[in-house]
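thought: fold this chain, then report.
action: predict
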Amino acid sequence: ALRARTHELLDAAYAQGVRYVDTARSYGRAEEFLGEWLDARPSFTDLVVGSKWGYTYTADWRVEAEEHEVKDHSLATFERQYAETRDLLGDRLSLYQVHSVTPDSPALTDKELLGRLAALAADGVTVGLSTSGPAQADAIRAALAVTVDGEPLFRTVQATYNALETSAAPALAEAHDAGLTVIV
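observation:
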């Protein structure tokens, strides 16, 4: 029932003009359901599919689980989760973001990981990041300084921004001015 309802919702969104779909490895079976939906609709070539890596869902659908997800921005987690995402979404993946980057994240400093992300970008997948929490602006500004071989790495930033949380606004404006796509 959950799969069918997900597909119905995606059909309705597409019919209303939605052309960007955001998911993540840690969103339960979201990539699986989205991948099946995409496979059944090969003519939907105008859809931008974004996903995120860096959290591993561990609750196994149990609300009372001690830990629901584990955050890890290591190269090993990237390699594992990218392979899983690619298996489920195939070549429909347009954007791959580091999930919930903070200023101290290895995703901003690990040279080997940054090189692998740059290789992914060279293969045609846009590389971005998402932020959350009280240090979003600092994380965004740190990401703007990340380069690989003299080229900026991150091309998108997704942040928590709403009527009650506007603290990232100046940093998001800086990201926009630097040419990044801003997703809120």
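thought: worth noting. The two ends are 30 Å apart (CA to CA).
final: tokens above.
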